[in-house]
Write a structure and sequence with these properties.
homodimer, globular, seven-stranded parallel β-sheet, 16 helices
C-alpha cells in the first residue's frame, strides 16, 4: 500500500497535532454533484450503484476531485447487512428504503444469520479494495456501518418510520426478542466492519441515525451497549496503524459522556449541541467530529465562512477536531458552497493549531 | 362560571400540593378513539371538525368520558393562525398540513397582518366558550398555540419538512426577514392566546414542535426569544385565578434551564430527557409535564404500569409534576391502554405527595 500523503484526518481522530483542521462531509458523494447524478443514471438504480464496485469507487472519488477534502468515505448504504440477511432491500422513488421481508416476530428473528463479508457482501469489500487502490494514498478511506439499533429499526418497521411503533412496541413488550435481534445484528456489523478493515478501510464510522428516539435508559441498553460490543470485537490495528472508530448518534448530544467511555476514538456531534459543550462532556477523552448545520450551505459563501469560523471557535484550540456537517449534505446544495466550506476550514483553522496552543 | 371541581392540574402547574399527580395526554382527543373517528366522519374533513365549535367541543370531551383525566385541551390545530393570515391551510390525505400560499420572500412577509381573534378566528373562541360551558367545572380547559418558530417553519416551507431547507436558508441568509416574520407571528400568537383566555381557557400550552432542529444559539434567538415575548404579553390572570403557561420544545431537553427562566409556569419534557435530569436543570423553578414515550402504549397494561412507575419515580417526591406523554398519542393505540396509563398514574402517585414528603 502506498504511504498516506495526507494523514490529518487520522491524526486528528487520535488527538495528535495537525497543521489545519481536517474536513470531510457526510454524504459528500451524492446527489448535489452533477457528476454523481450522471454515474447514478449510468448505474440504473441506487442499489445498482452501491453494488458495482467500479462505479461505487468512481462516485467515492468525485468529491475529492472538486474539493481539497481530508478523507474519502466508502460509497454504500447502511442497509446492505439486512439485505444480505435476506430481507430484500429496495428503494421506491421518493420514499426511501424498504424491505420486502421485514422481521416482525420471534420466528423471523431466530431465522436471521450473520452474513459472511466476503461471501455475502463481496461487492462492498471489492469496493473498499478498488477505492483504496485508486485513492493511491491521497487521503484515508473511511468504512462504515449502521448501528445495530438503527439497522434493527428498519428491519422491524420495514421502512423509514415516524413513530417507530413496531420496534418500540416490541422493545417494551418483548425486550428479550429485541435483545436477540440486536445481538445478531451486532455480530453481523462486527464481521462486516472487520471485513472492511481487512479490505483496506483506514477508519470506521458507525451511524446511529435513530438512537436519539430512545429514552436515556433505553439508549444505553438498546443502542450504546451494542455499539460497545462491536468496538470490543473490532481489529483496531491494520497495516501497522490504529484504525480509529467514530460513533455518531444523531440527537445524542446529551449522551456524549457515556459514548466517550466506550473506547471509541471519536464522536460525531450534530448542530443541536455546541462543540464547546460537547468537549466539556467528553473531557477531551475522544476527538469530536462536526457540527455545521447542513442548511448553512444554502446561505451565501460569506455566511458559510462566518458559520465555519463559529464552529472552529466553539471547539477552540488544540487537537482532536474533525470538521464536518452535523448530518449528510442536502441534495439541493450548490457544489460551490461546499467548496466554500472546505476552503474556509483550511484557511481559518491554522490559528487553532499554532505551536503555542498545543496541549 | 361554575367552581372547578378538580384543580389538581392547575395546582401542580403552580407547584402547590396535590393528592395525586394529575394526568392528561397530548392529542387525547384523536384518531385512536372510535367515537372521535365517528365525529370526524360526521364533520367531513379535519378542518371542518376544527371549525365547527359544537363538534370541536364534542371531541374535546370524548376522552373525559372514558378516562378520569385531570384536564381537557381545546380541540384545534396549531395552523389556524397562518390560515387566518390568508395562507390557505389544507390537509392532503396522508401527507399532513399544507399551505396554498406559503410565505417565501420579503413581500410576502411584509404583507402579513395580525388576525383579530374574535373576528378572524371566532370559531376557535366559540369552541373555547362552548367547551367551558359543557365542561361545567369538571376539569380545567387548556388552550394552546404553536410557537412562532414552529408556525413560521410551516408558513415558509408550505408543508411539513424533513430538512427545513427553506426556512433555514432564509434564517442564515436573511436573519432580518426571519425576525420580521417571527415578530408578526409572535404578536398574532399573543392576541390569539389572550383571546382564548378571555373566552375561558384556564391554562395555556405553547407547542414548539420544531425548536429542536436549531442549534443552541439559534434556538435562543429564533424560538425561545419569541416565546418569551409572548409570555410577556399574555394576561396571566382570569376569573381571579392565575392562568399558567406551559412551554414545550420537542427535543429541547438541553435547553430546559434557559426555558425555565422565561417566566413560564411549566415545561413539557419529551422522553429523551429523564425527569430527574430535567428537574435538576430547572432547579424546581417551574413545574414539569411529561414524559412517557407514547409507544409504551403499544405494550401490555402491565408494562405500561411499570413505565408509569418509572416516570413517577424519576420525577420523585413533591409538587410540580403533571403526568403526560412526551408527544401526542399515536393513532393506532388501544384506548384500553390509555385507560391503564391514567389509572396507573392515579393509583401509583399518592406516595409522592404524602404529607411528610411535601417540601
Amino acid at each position: 500500500m502506498p504511504n498516506l500523503k495526507n494523514d490529518r484526518f487520522l491524526r486528528a481522530l487520535l488527538r495528535q497535532p495537525v497543521d489545519v483542521t481536517p474536513v470531510w462531509m457526510m454524504r459528500q458523494a451524492g446527489r448535489y454533484l452533477p457528476e454523481y447524478r450522471a454515474s447514478r443514471a449510468q448505474a440504473g438504480s441506487f442499489l445498482d450503484l452501491c453494488q458495482n464496485p467500479d462505479l461505487a469507487c468512481e462516485v467515492t472519488l468525485q468529491p475529492l476531485e472538486r474539493f481539497p477534502l481530508d478523507a474519502a468515505i466508502l460509497f454504500s448504504d447502511i442497509l446492505t447487512i439486512p439485505d444480505a440477511m435476506g430481507l430484500g432491500l429496495y428503494f421506491s422513488e421518493g420514499e426511501g428504503p424498504r424491505f420486502r421481508n421485514p422481521v416482525r416476530d420471534e420466528r423471523g428473528i431466530k431465522a436471521l444469520g450473520v452474513p459472511d463479508p466476503e461471501q455475502d457482501l463481496g461487492y462492498v469489500m471489492d469496493a473498499v479494495r478498488t477505492i483504496r487502490r485508486e485513492l493511491d494514498g491521497r487521503v484515508p478511506l473511511i468504512g462504515f456501518s449502521g448501528s445495530p439499533w438503527t439497522l434493527a429499526t428498519y428491519m422491524v418497521e420495514g421502512a423509514g418510520s415516524k413513530n417507530f411503533s413496531q420496534i418500540k412496541g416490541m422493545m417494551f413488550d418483548r425486550p428479550d426478542l429485541i435483545e436477540q435481534l440486536l445481538g445478531t445484528v451486532a455480530d453481523a456489523v462486527t464481521a462486516y466492519l472487520n471485513g472492511q478493515i481487512a479490505a483496506g478501510a483506514q477508519a470506521l464510522m458507525i451511524f446511529d441515525t435513530w438512537g436519539g428516539v430512545l429514552s436515556p435508559g433505553n439508549y444505553r441498553k438498546y443502542s450504546l451497549a451494542y455499539m460497545d460490543r462491536i468496538l470490543k470485537g473490532l481489529h483496531r490495528e491494520s497495516e501497522g496503524q490504529r484504525v480509529p472508530v467514530i460513533l455518531f448518534t444523531k440527537g445524542g448530544g446529551d449522551w456524549l459522556g457515556d459514548m466517550a467511555r466506550t473506547g471509541c476514538d471519536g464522536l460525531g456531534v450534530d448542530w443541536t449541541t455546541d462543540l464547546s459543550d460537547a468537549r466539556r462532556r467528553v473531557q477531551d477523552r475522544v476527538a469530536l467530529q462536526g457540527n455545521l448545520d447542513p442548511c448553512v450551505l444554502y446561505a451565501s459563501p460569506k455566511r458559510i465562512r462566518e458559520e465555519v469560523q463559529r464552529v472552529l471557535a466553539s471547539y477552540g484550540h488544540g487537537p482532536g477536531h474533525v470538521f464536518n456537517l452535523g448530518h449528510g449534505i442536502h441534495p439541493g446544495v450548490n457544489p460551490d458552497h461546499a467548496l466554500a466550506l472546505v476552503e474556509a476550514v483550511h484557511e481559518l483553522s491554522p490559528q487553532y493549531h499554532s505551536a503555542t496552543n498545543l496541549e
